[in-house]
Amino acid sequence: MAQKEERCARELLEVVPIIARFIRTEMRRHRALGLTVPQFRTLAFTERTGGTTLGGVAEHLGLTPPSTCKIVDGLAARELITRLQSPRDHRKVNLQITAVGKRVVADARRETHKGLASILSSLDQRELERIMQSMRALRMVFIGETVHANT
Amino acid sequence: MAQKEERCARELLEVVPIIARFIRTEMRRHRALGLTVPQFRTLAFTERTGGTTLGGVAEHLGLTPPSTCKIVDGLAARELITRLQSPRDHRKVNLQITAVGKRVVADARRETHKGLASILSSLDQRELERIMQSMRALRMVFIGETVHANT
DNA sequence: TATTGTTATACTCTATAACTATA
DNA sequence: TATAGTTATAGAGTATAACAATA
Q1: Which of A34, B8, B119, B127 has the greatest number of C-beta atoms within 10 Å?
Q2: How far is the CA of B65 from the C1' of D22 (A)?
Q3: Side-chain half-sphere exposure of B149, counting CA atoms within 13 A
Q4: Claim: this prediction has a pTM higher than 0.85
Q5: CA distances (Å), A135 to each of A90, B78, B135, in order?
Q6: CA-to-C1' distance for B2 and D3, Å?
């Protein structure tokens, strides 16, 4: 056995990169927004947590601190995020999404959802339901694996 | 209506990047092989088609010719692929996977499958079946969308 | 003139190594 | 001494624009 895992793995390896590329392109298409996927995820995480640190973002994204730092650099330069020394521990940096950041991430989310939904519209309700259940199952196992923490 | 598409889109937008990152990391982990995802996909496509052209790969990956050219540069430098002027149309370049390329892509595929399958092993048979069906449905709609052609 | 591929240039992602400031 | 973050450096992905060779 473990044969079904094997076949399932093959499907994921074929299909996930295709959808990932679609998302990336869609995210980039709306030029006024112009977010990359990690930038989008960083903004969304910072908003969802109501503020975090660089280390928190790094763990969420599964990236090293230097990589994360550069992504945050870009967001801070565009004033989508603020970066302030933590008063409790001066080594830490508190990240907060700005009002503009909130608007941009909401717009990017809406536009990307629209692009995805338009493709999904050719599937019937049963298939959509199945995909949602699959995504929930995958999220659980992959998030359990891909270190995570909110600091 | 269109509400289920919308929720399904949201799930995809959350979960796909996580799995994509896992695949990328897994692909890179086995350093002897050291393939990136587009390199892997290029090799796999070249092998599957029994030979293709640069334009063929570009369409398959959904990338521009210059981007594709650079990816092929890297593969050719490592002698995983050969690049020869087409005898019928001298503008075209025929790509062929080499023996070493075949070995490398097979190893990368096996290792990545192993990594994915080990995570999937915590899911039961019913869930795995559902994921496979979902992936097949998604592949159909996204490949229909993401231009494709084999030259 | 249109097509195929390449080169030039530029930006982002991502990593490792080395460094600064703070605890 | 250990931790949080940054800077330096480097390789790969990706795009647009400009170009060469061929049809």
Answers
A1: B8
A2: 17
A3: 9
A4: yes
A5: 39, 37, 10
A6: 49
